[in-house]
Design goal:
Blueprint (H helix, E strand, L loop, with lengths): L1 E10 L2 E11 L4 E5 L6 H8 L7 E6 L2 E2 L5 H7 E4 L11 H6 L15 H13 L15 H14 L4 E5 L7 H18 L2 E5 L3 H7 L2 E6 L2 E7 H4 L2 H8 L3 E5 L6 E5 L4
Parallel strand pairs: 3-8, 3-9, 6-7, 7-8
Antiparallel strand pairs: 1-2, 1-4, 4-5, 9-10, 11-12
Helix pairs in contact: 4-5
Length: 259
């Protein structure tokens, strides 16, 4: 479980997050929505300890974030960033194996059979087993995205934090990824926090949502209660049409064209 209270972040002399509070619960997926510049990525990077905060508090499973050493943070939280910059080439298997670093002891730790089993299971679950020996730099954007997700799963974290995980994926892969994350919630009882630009994917798959505008929380709570035309028009500044998805009965939205 991740709990943030009255979190404020200044960067470059500008207030990016203003007294943001939220809870991300175990076994549930929290979707973070908001327009560009609303503070979504800053919030995620602050929760992971990448950015400092000037006020408030963050607790990971009851422990203050500031008391957790880097390896302990990595064992508790895995992060899939919006952009993963690759400056070196390795086989896909070795890229996924980097996720085991937090569980290894010593400077020159060697992977054991348990590590190998976990790595291969993560690759199987993300559909990249057949890419094990391929060059990382030879992959498409969508294929790399699945490699980074496998690396995150290989960490065996309690919490999974994802910044636009459907970026670079085609429509079928987007749905497959979100359905896979839903299954992970049930099987591993993870805490999942997910920044999404696609409102409809959030409505279909997120248990809870947090709506941000100009660094402040507009509203948060159970997805089908929070996602309304009025709330979305407030944070995105444009008109929406609402209808109901026929299979799950969840709300769906489309932008209304401006004549």
């Amino acid at each position: 479980m991740i709990v943030a209270n009255d979190l404020s972040v200044n960067r470059g002399g500008r207030l990016i997050l203003d007294q943001v509070s939220f809870q991300a619960k175990r076994g549930r997926m929290l979707g973070i929505l908001g327009a560009n510049g609303s503070g979504k990525t800053t919030l995620l990077k602050t929760v992971t300890g990448f950015y400092p905060y000037q006020a408030g508090s963050i607790k990971i499973d009851g422990k203050p974030l500031v008391t957790l050493k880097p390896k302990e943070r990595a064992r508790r939280m895995a992060v899939l960033s919006q952009e993963e910059h690759v400056s070196f080439d390795v086989p896909v298997y070795e890229a996924v194996a980097l996720g085991r670093y937090a569980h290894q002891q010593g400077l020159f730790a060697v992977k054991g059979k348990t590590d190998d089993d976990i790595i291969r299971k993560a690759m199987e679950e993300t559909g990249i087993s057949d890419m094990a020996e391929r060059s990382l730099l030879s992959l498409s954007g969508g294929e790399k995205q699945r490699v980074w997700l496998a690396r995150a799963l290989a960490q065996q974290p309690d919490s999974l934090l994802l910044d636009e995980p459907t970026n670079h994926l085609d429509l079928a892969r987007q749905v497959a990824l979100m359905e896979y994350l839903t299954k992970l919630l049930a099987s591993r009882q993870l805490t999942v926090v997910c920044i999404l630009h696609d409102i409809n994917l959030a409505s279909l798959y997120c248990d809870d949502v947090l709506l941000l505008k100009n660094g402040k929380v507009v509203c948060q709570g159970e997805t089908q209660s929070i996602l309304t035309r009025g709330a979305l028009e407030n944070i995105y500044g444009t008109a929406f049409h609402e209808w109901q998805e026929p299979v799950k009965g969840r709300k769906q939205f489309s932008v209304v064209a401006r004549v």
